[in-house]
Specification:
The complex is a heterodimer of chains A (293) and B (321). Chain A is an all-alpha fold and 293 residues long. Helix content of chain A is 74%, strand content 2%. Chain A is built from 11 helices and 2 strands; from the N terminus they run ααααββααααααα. A two-stranded antiparallel sheet of chain A has the order 1-2. In chain A, helix 9 crosses helix 10. The longest helix of chain A has 32 residues. Chain A starts with a helix and ends in a 12-residue tail after the last helix. With 321 residues, chain B is an all-alpha fold. Chain B has one domain. Chain B has 16 helices and no strands. The radius of gyration of chain B is 19 Å and the shape is globular. Classes of the chains: A mainly alpha (293), B mainly alpha (321). The interface between A and B is large, with 45 and 45 residues.
């Protein structure tokens, strides 16, 4: 094993981690605030990827415009879904909430398969940034772009949660809903807002998918299962935890698939072993608070 | 109470009657239909047994696949040995995994079970020389492909699942199961052996799902990992149970039949790609409109029609606590 191979694997893994973190941060935000485990989050990512694919290849939109449209469209869809369906389910037990979002996910996946066929397609984007050379290894420009967009999105989210009025209200609702209500926080609005922001991040993550992966109806399911693993690693509800979890998962996946013979298909196996190990040692994840049912 | 008992006998009667009618009529189309609905009913009952202890699983596909492969690897020993092997292997796997996943609460448990079924598929692919890898393996056919033997074998399995489900709804187990789900701390101070009960549910559920897998393998005579470990084997039982009504025997049983009918309709209109749309629609509608499924609807209708029932409070999906 030479040093440039190691650097190459690590750099690609960091790019994939950027994508994973983009998917997982929205998921964990929605959960942290509303306590709904949104299984359909992956489907919003998938729809975002399809929007980007069609706008970029069929209508020749510039990529930045695709990202904006995909993010906005998914924010809107998330809003509609939350207000018409999920807000209603909020009153039922956690069991049913999870099953409701799972049903939504199955519906959207199959709708996409009917509309656009289950085939995988690539939008063959030209490299939007120059490739990064480091120690004899090369990171393609688009992978670099994924890292940059994801980092920008994470920073924006972190600043929003830290300093803005709504960010503070969200954190308050997430740590103690009764106290937040007593302090005059409009909990309904905060819940809706968390889904709108979650939907936006999903749309942007979808654009990133279209940039470096194949676009097909099941791509969201693949990603959301990994995102769950990441969120379990980092702690449900913790956005910083999602980034760390994404790095841990993506780097272990990358190294297993490069250095273990026939390791290419081990992705979910790695995720499973990580989840079980971490949850047995630390049931709330690295950064999670204990959440009372 | 009499009405209640007759409803509970319904799944047994229906299974026996269907078997008898089909043995006489020998209609291959209906036999295929009944076989499909039976496999789904077994899976749905196995899912519901587990969910009564609060463990929402998306890993029935793991046991389905393990069962299918365990029976296939018995090869020349015949299908009966294959089934026994499937039950044994799934039982042991479920015991070990049950102890491992026991501490995972709610969502974490569900996430772990999804990852689990995908990991087992990888294992089959990795030990390709032994398992046939991606190109699959041919398990022994049930009754050498005789449809009568096949149907009887599968219907016996359905009866077994109904029996297991009813056993866990009996006074001996029912309060413990539901109390563990709704108030684990209360269950603990009441002296309910939580670990043993949860693992018991996991083992029985895993064995039933594994037997369903073995039956599937023995019906079609050829299996590949992508098919028997497919996520849809985890999702179908869940949709069927939600449609029929959770926490009962008649719920998953009739839910499976109803879902098969709906699926047939969807295949007709949407085609082979995307017919699973029906699972999503069923789940969304049931949770939003009929949270207790068809069984809950039935109970509500009966309660409204007879005031005596309201006095005794004998609803079908009545929960402890």
């Amino acid at each position: 094993m030479d040093i440039s191979g190691l650097i190459q694997t690590s750099m690609l893994a960091v790019a994939v981690a950027g994508l994973y973190a983009a998917v997982a941060s929205g998921l964990t935000l929605e959960f942290g605030v509303t306590r709904i485990v949104n299984f359909a989050h992956g489907e919003f990512v998938m729809l975002g990827a399809f929007i980007t694919f069609f706008l970029y290849s069929d209508y020749g939109f510039p990529f930045v415009a695709c990202v904006a449209v995909a993010g906005t469209a998914m924010a809107l869809l998330s809003y509609v879904v939350f207000v018409t369906f999920l807000a209603r389910v909020l009153k039922q037990d956690e069991h049913n909430q999870f099953l409701a979002t799972l049903g939504l996910s199955i519906l959207i996946v199959n709708l996409a398969a009917v509309l656009w066929t289950p085939d995988a397609r690539s939008m063959h984007p030209e490299n939007l940034l120059p490739a990064l050379q480091l120690g004899g290894a090369t990171l393609p420009g688009n992978n670099l772009l994924v890292i940059l967009i994801s980092a920008a999105m994470y920073s924006a989210l972190a600043l929003f949660m830290r300093y803005t009025r709504y960010g503070i209200q969200m954190r308050m609702a997430s740590s103690d809903i009764d106290l937040a209500t007593l302090c005059g926080v409009n909990v309904d609005r905060v819940f809706t807002l968390s889904f709108v922001i979650g939907g936006f991040t999903a749309g942007v993550a979808g654009s990133l998918v279209a940039l470096i992966l194949y676009v097909h109806p099941l791509v969201g399911l693949d990603l959301v299962i990994r995102a769950f693993a990441i969120v379990a690693l980092g702690g449900l509800g913790s956005i910083a935890g999602a980034v760390i979890g994404a790095l841990v998962l993506s780097i272990s996946e990358g190294f297993v698939s490069t250095f273990v013979p026939e390791g290419g298909s081990w992705g979910f196996g790695v995720a499973f072993v990580l989840i079980v190990l971490v949850l047995i040692i630390r049931p709330t994840g690295f950064f999670g608070r204990s959440i009372q049912a | 109470m009499i009405a209640n008992r007759s409803i509970r006998a319904l799944p047994y009667l229906l299974t026996l009657c269907t078997g008898t009618v089909l043995l006489i009529s020998q209609d291959p189309y209906w036999i295929q239909l009944v076989l499909g609905a039976s496999l789904l009913a077994i899976l749905a009952l196995s899912w519901d047994i587990l969910s009564r202890t609060g463990q929402v699983s998306l890993g029935q596909a793991a046991f389905f696949g393990i069962g299918a492969y365990a029976s296939a690897l018995c090869g020349d020993l015949g299908w009966i040995v294959g089934w026994l092997m499937a039950a044994a292997v799934c039982g042991v796997t479920a015991l070990l995994l049950g102890l491992l996943t026991l501490r995972l609460r709610q969502v974490y448990f569900t996430i772990a079970t999804i990852a689990l079924s995908l990991s087992f598929k990888v294992l089959i692919l990795v030990f390709g020389t032994f398992t046939g890898g991606a190109s699959g393996i041919a398990p022994p056919m049930i009754g050498d492909g005789n449809p009568n033997v096949q149907m009887c074998a599968v219907l016996v399995l359905v009866l077994l699942s109904i029996l297991a489900s009813d056993l866990f709804l009996s006074d001996r187990y029912r309060p413990a199961f539901f109390m563990i789900r709704t108030k684990p701390s209360l269950a603990a101070v009441s002296g309910i052996p939580i670990v043993r009960t949860k693992v018991l549910a996991f083992v029985v559920s895993g064995m039933l799902a594994g037997l369903a897998g073995a039956a599937y393998a023995g019906l079609y005579g050829y299996i590949v990992p992508d098919d028997v470990f497919a996520l849809s084997w985890s999702i179908m039982p869940l949709a069927a149970t939600i449609l029929g009504g959770m926490d009962s025997t008649i719920g998953p049983f009739f839910g499976a039949i109803a879902l098969k009918v709906l699926e047939g309709v969807a295949r007709n209109y949407v085609g082979g790609v995307g017919y699973q749309i029906v699972y999503g629609v069923v789940m969304i509608l049931c949770i939003a409109v009929l949270p207790k499924g068809l069984a809950g609807l039935l109970a509500a209708v009966r309660e409204a029609s007879s005031p005596r029932h309201r006095a005794t409070g004998a609803g079908v999906t009545e929960r402890v606590l």
